[in-house]
Amino acid sequence: MNLVRIMRHLSSGQWLLRRVFPTATLTAIEQTIQQSEMNHSGEICIAVEGTLNTLALIKNQTARERAIEVFSQLRVWDTEQNNGVLIYLLLADRDVEIIVDRGIHARISNAEWKNICHSMESAFSQRQFEAGFIQGIHAISQLLETHFPYDPKKDKNELTNKPTVL
After folding, report:
1. Domain named TPM: which ranges (predicted)?
2. CATH number of the domain encompassing residue 132
3. Distance, CA of 155 to CA of 135 (rounded, Å)
């Protein structure tokens, strides 16, 4: 049990989430996703969570473990082409995780996803949340454009472009 982490989570909350992600920021992120998905067949989904609940903290749940849960809860895996991507931010830990569906995982290495996560975390450490997400979406889009080009006959928007705030 990490008491420093628990205190950080307990001192954060929905108020911090609303301050860091006002409506204008969420709208800019949503529009960036919408524009990016016109260039590839991938489905990008964003989830932002302020803190973990007390039980998860006591069990020392990692952001990666929580991201996998959220990937399932938001049904990011439930796309026709198995091309869903979840960008998950656990704000209290400033930890970004990218979880991808099996169709994408087979073509793009974990190292590339980690680089994008680190770049986003760097922006977030400078309190550049909107810019960090937009840069991350653009980086993911470049990978998806290479491996999953847009096909107007097959592609449809299967997941919401609006960021989910948990």
Report:
1. 20-142
2. 3.10.310.50
3. 24
Alpha-carbon 12 to chain mean position: 19
Structurally, the chain folds into a number of domains equal to 1
Which residue range forms the structural domain that includes residue 25? 3-165
Q: How far is CA 90 from CA 8, 67, 98, 123, in A?
A: 12, 9, 12, 14
Beta-ladder partners of 32? none
Local confidence pLDDT in tens for the 166 residues of the chain: 677 877 777 777 777 788 889 999 999 999 999 999 999 989 999 999 998 888 888 788 999 999 999 999 999 988 888 889 999 999 998 899 999 998 888 888 899 999 999 999 999 999 999 999 999 999 999 999 998 888 887 777 888 899 999 9
Q: What is the pTM of this model?
A: 0.91
Q: Give residues with Cβ within 8 angstroms of 159, minimum separation 6.
A: 43, 44, 45, 74, 75, 76, 79, 84
Residues of the chain by 3-state class (helix, strand, coil), percent to 5: 55, 15, 35
Q: Report d(CA 90, CA 117) in Å as an integer.
A: 12
